[in-house]
Amino acid sequence: MSQQIDLPWGEETLRVKVPASWRLWGRLEPKKLDGAPDPNEACAAALREPICAAPIAERDLSCASVVVVTDDHTRPTPVAGFLPAVLESLAAAGVADDRIEILLATGVHRPSRDDEAASKLGPEIAGRLRWRCHDAYDRASLVDVGTTSRGTRVLYNRALAEADLIVCVGAIEPHLLLGFGGGLKMLLPGCAGSETIGTNHMQGVDSDNFDFVGTPASPMRLDLEEAAGLLRKEIFIVNVIMNEDFQPARFFCGDPVEAHRAGVALSREVAANAVPEQADVVLTNSYPMDEDLRQSAKCLGNALYACRPGGVMMGCVRCVGGLGEMPIPKVTLPYPLLRLVVRLIGKKRVLPLVERVKKGEPVEEVFVGHFGLQMLRRNHLALFSEILPAETGRKMGLARVYNDLDAMVRWVAAHAPRRASVWVFPHGGVTYAHHGA
Description:
CATH architecture of the largest domain: 3-Layer(aba) Sandwich
Radius of gyration: 22 Å
Structural class: alpha/beta
CATH superfamily of the largest domain: LarA, N-terminal domain
Number of helices: 15
CATH topology of the largest domain: Rossmann fold
Strand content: 25-35%
Number of domains: 2
Helix content: 25-40%
Distance between the termini: 34 Å
Oligomer: single chain
């Protein structure tokens, strides 16, 4: 006998059959938030009343050069639906098209293709305005603006240093390292050098608190906000909060810190789920962050604190783009042995192990390795995907990976109590758990 749990899966439904003896404590969902009937008009309204900043449209920017920074193809933010409002406000301030450049904040991702940029910006805007992708590895295109108090040497795209006004366009949503995305994240990691990105990411490498989801001012967030100040440029943000279906719902515009914090307050209200007791098993789903493994696997970190230490995390990760840019280690240990090793050495020795194994590799790979191993040390990890290659789990070592949903459930059942308690996160890509213990 079994019981069925339905999860959103693209335009379809994924039906997960679990043992009848499991005790389903509940589905932890984001709070309902109505999508804006007209996202462009909703954005325009927020631009008319920005937070702690003067409206762009009421300024004289006729001689100004402007860089508009947007997130890239790996993020589902529907920028094309409200970017016209941003450009209209610039035009009202006297900014001609030839004084605007759009910079796609790719960070260390691959460059967006022409079709991906057209989808992100809208075909008309992509064809009318200059746009390009940031290149974190092109030293000639970067400028050194100083070092933060936390030791991050800050190299930014030269276009930012040469602009009179920087407008950051993105979304506020739960983030494993930053607590929440959005704000000045468009600049770091979005438009910074690879060395800067790696060092900033390492601010979140803490053996006791490696998962900062839901933390308004994480070490990485504070470091990147300080880094943005080193530019000594005016920065204006246009941030959207989306509902569980990733429809634009509310806009927060203005000062890059104050407007961001106002948006974070709403995002916490929508996305946070208090967990009165941690369960034996957590079933979490990547929806709507389904782009690739790096994005989809975030649902595990988002729901981590709903699971008791030693319990089992099982994630349904759609991974439309497959592995994407997730680094696969050259050599790894089999899952049971790798978990045994990290449990034996303890949490404080995980980072030295990763640094030794990944010596000479990019710093961001050290971060990914550390985060993954700390999760593995705390919990069993299992993933289901219809798209990932069957050998993914063997190559990664960090999780058991299945193409067969029933096979994953059987493996989880073998590692959980017969009457396991279960929390379910149907929208694990945009909601998170917090537990007081």
